[in-house]
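A common beginner's mistake is to predict each chain separately and then try to dock the pieces by hand. The better habit, illustrated here, is to supply every component at once so that their relative placement is modeled jointly.
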Amino acid sequence: MIRFDNVSKEYRDNGNSITNALYDITLGVEQGEFVSIVGHSGAGKTTLLKMLLAEESPSTGTVFFEEVDIHGLSNKEIPQLRRRIGTVFQDFKLLPNKTAYENIAFAMEAAGRSDEEIAADVPQALELVDLGDKVWNFPHQLSGGERQRIAIARAIINQPDLLIADEPTGNLDPLNTQDIIDVLRKINELGTTILLTTHNKGVIDNLGRRVITMEGGRIIRDDKHGRYVL
Amino acid sequence: MFTTLRRIIRSGFISFWRNGVVSAASVLVMTVTLFTLGTTIFLGALLHSSLEYLKEKVDVNIYFVTTASEDEIMGVKTALDTLPEVAETVYTSRDQALEDFKKRHENDYTTLQALEELDDNPLGASVSVRAKETSQYESIARYLEDHGMAGGSEGSIVESVNFYQNKTAIEKLNGIIDGMDKISFVVTVFLVVISVLITFNTVRLAIYTAREEIAIMRLVGADNIFIRGPFIVEGILYGVFAAIMTLLALYPVTKWLGDETERFFGTMNIFEYYMQNFWQILFIIAGAGIVLGILSSFLAVRRYLRV
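With all components supplied together, the output reads:
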């Protein structure tokens, strides 16, 4: 489903010094997998995920999403790619001036879904993340855990093929962390591929799924039933 | 397509309302801009009418000798009427001239008595000529000269032409009109450019605060029209509200200054001008506000839309 072919990414500072964010990454992810990516800050995890969203382009190599070369897409096609990928971030990235309901509805509106679909799906998604009673609250009226669950509801509302979760539990307490991971696991069971980055050892060890370990822009370990080893 | 448009408009209205403080600030700044624009409209009209008034005061009089017959004078008048530069000619007969003279001196007893002593009417007939443009008097005077009607020459029916006495005054007025036109143009452009830049910056600042939101919208897969649309709707709303406030503010201001301007310039009352040209002014002000709002939003969002 996802394939990185010899992908490298260099950043050039002041024209001279070159920083390698990614170094010759080759990686494949199958439909329905739950893959965790671990590594120190600056290991290249986020850069890897940004390439899938066409936010970053590789210096060399190609990234495929279901046989489509992501970086060969035109500016008009990129929004369509992004509608097929749900995203969840450490800082939630909710629209501050929109209510919980509107935040989720926005993703559907952007995808051109009908009003009937929106009216039917959004309450369902809010129920799924257990926030049926916070429909009309603005993000600043919600706790961190609640905000992240709104973000997850938004990420899955268009039934994406892939869900990217970039340190989704970074700002949450252990209880909320467990809730979020449980929700992600549930989503994965329904067939969505999940790419998760985290610094939380407990989360990784409990999942018992595929773990990719990165260091200095390279993949140093790829275990089918991995543990958090750094 | 229709659904998208409806969503964009609704979203624009909602964020205009929810970003109340930012919207109010933008509307206020744009109101100042539009008010400046409105002021230049009124100043322009005032200047124009004053100059028209002055121009009307300028004319050239041809005084005929007392022996000139009415037919001869009418011949000159008709010839002048055919000139393209001439707007109007008015004939004053000898009797009329005497009437006017008496009227002008009705309190001057000695002059009237001196007039009584004369057997005959000493005043000649005259034709006053008004040109379409003050700069054209020169060529009218030259025409008279070429046709032996400059006055003073032997056997001519023309006694004198007062262009030569008025020449400096006319030339000076021409200079003033030219200068005023240029100055008012420069001032208008200057004011409008400055206020447009200020509005531009305000809207850009308002959208700068929304750059995070724009990034999020892109991440969720919204295309550019869907992101940009609501901001443009907001821009239109800034323009509409600013136009309403400007038109409302102009009412008491012009009413208050109306009588003053009429007394001072003696030509027009800006309050009446406002009322008579209300729809035209509304069109200009609202049009400028909406165009400015759309343009500012469009350009400001573009910065954050690069993928």
